[in-house]
């Protein structure tokens, strides 16, 4: 089997209306990698990545055509050497390619990707990943109440990013949901050392499960001190883009568990390496999966193939990023998401919608 063609669809920009009329503008593209055996690999990406992918692989198709799509490492390693070493290919572009190649491999062998990797489980508990909302507590209370009513057993809060108000918000949310719901906090790295410690000590009292990106990822020394000062698990990694840097955080004890994002590190292949690195040190790896269906699916396959992961991240409100797919990821009555049964990524593209939404095909 050989790669025979590459094509990119640029889709219309869309504005999604979420809880309480908060709006998210999304501009996306669909990357397609074809083979001479009629098997196609697909990945939905943001429009910037789509154009960058087209610039490299559509304008220079000889970079991919003729290669065996199962030779992922061989293909992707090409772009870290000459002539790319002086102008590195962005990891989001490599991520799109990597996901397409895994999709092809799964379809070729009629297996979901996680089975191809080596399945560890067929379901995983999900947490509702909320968004940043306006500064009134009733907004947050309304959201978490809907999440609990919808069957979620765990919720992650993205707070105001004002540490004193964030503490009060965490108290209010804990009181609202009771002790049976697992809670996490992700302030997205905005606190300084003093603020991060104060918030961390308070959410420990409230029995929060983890404390994600409390401080800037660049403050390794501060994170080391924070991890040593708190009992709650501190998670870092969403803003790290290569395997070597993960090693530095482990070495410095600057995190208790790892996070990773496919688009940041380059796809499913490097995510597996990060998860196995964490496992070697007795640590968990909790991949980020907030994004479109391709991003959610890619992270889910990794989570289903590793043991050192507790939760799947599911954006709420559900379905906000499902455009262009016939299938979706949803929780069951017990709060779990289940493995896809279809081959490859396992979530079928709605080609009728893609045709309607396409404004340009880069070919």
Task: List its salient traits.
four-stranded antiparallel β-sheet, 363 residues, TIM Barrel, eight-stranded mixed β-sheet, Enolase-like, domain 1, single chain, globular, 14 strands, 13 helices, 2 domains, alpha/beta
Plain-language structure description:
Helix 1 (47-58) packs across helix 3 and helix 9 (243-251) runs parallel beside helix 11. The protein has two domains: 3-110 and 350-362, 2-Layer Sandwich (Enolase-like, domain 1); 115-338, TIM Barrel, CATH 3.20.20. The protein is 38% helix and 19% strand. The protein is built from 13 helices and 14 strands. The strands form three sheets. Strands 6, 7, 8, 9, 10, 11, 12 and 13 form an eight-stranded mixed sheet that branches. A four-stranded antiparallel sheet has the order 5-4-1-14. The mean pLDDT is 93. By secondary structure, the chain is of the alpha/beta class. The radius of gyration is 20 Å and the shape is globular.
């Amino acid at each position: 089997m050989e790669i025979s063609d590459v094509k990119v669809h640029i889709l219309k920009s869309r504005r999604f209306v979420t809880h309480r009329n908060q709006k998210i503008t999304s501009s996306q593209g669909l990357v397609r990698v074809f083979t001479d055996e009629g098997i196609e690999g697909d990945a939905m990406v943001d429009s910037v990545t789509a154009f960058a992918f087209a610039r490299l692989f559509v304008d220079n198709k000889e970079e991919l055509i003729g290669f065996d799509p199962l030779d992922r490492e061989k293909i992707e390693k090409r772009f870290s050497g000459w002539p790319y070493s002086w102008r590195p290919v962005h990891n989001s572009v490599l991520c799109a390619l990597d996901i397409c190649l895994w999709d092809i491999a799964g379809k070729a062998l009629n297996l979901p990707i996680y089975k191809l990797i080596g399945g560890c489980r067929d379901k995983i508990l999900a947490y509702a990943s909320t968004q940043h909302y306006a500064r009134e507590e009733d907004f947050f209370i309304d959201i978490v109440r809907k999440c609990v009513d919808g069957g979620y057993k765990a919720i992650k809060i993205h707070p105001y990013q004002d540490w004193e108000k964030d503490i009060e918000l965490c108290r209010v949310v804990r009181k609202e949901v009771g002790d049976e719901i697992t809670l996490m906090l992700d302030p997205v790295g905005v606190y300084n050392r003093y603020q991060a410690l104060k918030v961390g000590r308070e959410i420990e009292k409230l029995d929060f499960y983890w404390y994600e990106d409390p401080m800037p990822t660049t403050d390794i020394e501060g994170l080391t001190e924070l991890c040593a000062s708190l009992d709650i698990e501190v998670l870092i990694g969403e803003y790290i883009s290569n395997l070597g840097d993960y090693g530095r955080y482990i070495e410095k004890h600057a995190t208790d568990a790892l996070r990773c994002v496919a688009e940041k590190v380059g796809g499913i292949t490097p995510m597996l390496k990060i998860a196995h690195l964490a496992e070697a040190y007795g640590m968990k790896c909790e991949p980020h999966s907030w994004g479109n269906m391709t991003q959610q699916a890619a992270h889910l396959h990794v989570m289903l193939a590793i043991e050192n992961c507790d939760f799947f991240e599911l954006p709420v409100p559900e379905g906000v990023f499902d455009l262009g797919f016939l299938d979706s990821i949803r929780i069951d009555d017990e709060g779990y998401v289940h493995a896809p049964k279809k081959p490859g990524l396992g979530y079928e593209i709605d080609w009728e919608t893609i045709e309607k939404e396409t404004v340009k095909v880069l070919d």
